[in-house]
Amino acid sequence: MSSTSRVLSALCLLASGLLAQEFRATITGRVLDPSGAAVSNVAIRAVNAANNETSNATSDASGAYTIPFLRPGQYKLTATAQGFKVVNRENVTLQVSQLAGIDIILGSRRSH
After folding, report:
1. Mean pLDDT over residues 62-90, rounded?
2. Whole-angstrom Cα distance, residue 29 to residue 45?
3. Which residues make Cβ contacts (< 8 Å) with residue 96, sequence separation at least 6?
4. Does residue 54 belong to any structural domain of this protein?
5. Separation between Cα atoms, residue 96 and residue 24, nearest integer Å
């Protein structure tokens, strides 16, 4: 093995070790309407109850969303979509390095 290969291997091992030590959590899921169909362009907000730190995401065409790099703790999730009632989910607890799968079912459409 050449010295360049050894250096590259060592750097890769170091980088993988640093990634494995990530302490923050991620919320991921899908947004669906009451019939189970995906809803795009939904604004999802996660607010940390301890410090009011806010993180946002928007659902894609398949209804999928991801909110990464969240500090462990308690959160309130809010989903807002045009034509639907606002959905609030209180007391979402995130642990160190957790990947929390949270699907959101939107309420019935608002009447005009």
Report:
1. 97
2. 13
3. 23, 25, 72
4. yes
5. 6
For the chain, give the mean pLDDT: 87
| Distances from the Cα of 75 to the Cα of 2, 66, 101, angstroms | 50, 15, 14
Residue 47 lies in a domain: yes
The reported pLDDT for the residue numbered 107 is: 85
Query: How many domains is the chain partitioned into structurally?
Result: 1
* Residues 24-42 pLDDT 10s: 999 999 999 999 999 999 9
Residue 56 lies in a domain: yes
What are residue 89's phi and psi, to 5 degrees? Answer: -130, 110
Is residue 15 a part of any domain in this protein? no
Find, among 66, 54, 63, the residue nearest to 81 by Cα.
63
Q: What percent of the chain has pLDDT over 90?
A: 74
Supply the range of the domain harboring residue 49: 23-105
Say how far apart CA 104 and CA 112 lie, in whole Å. Answer: 23
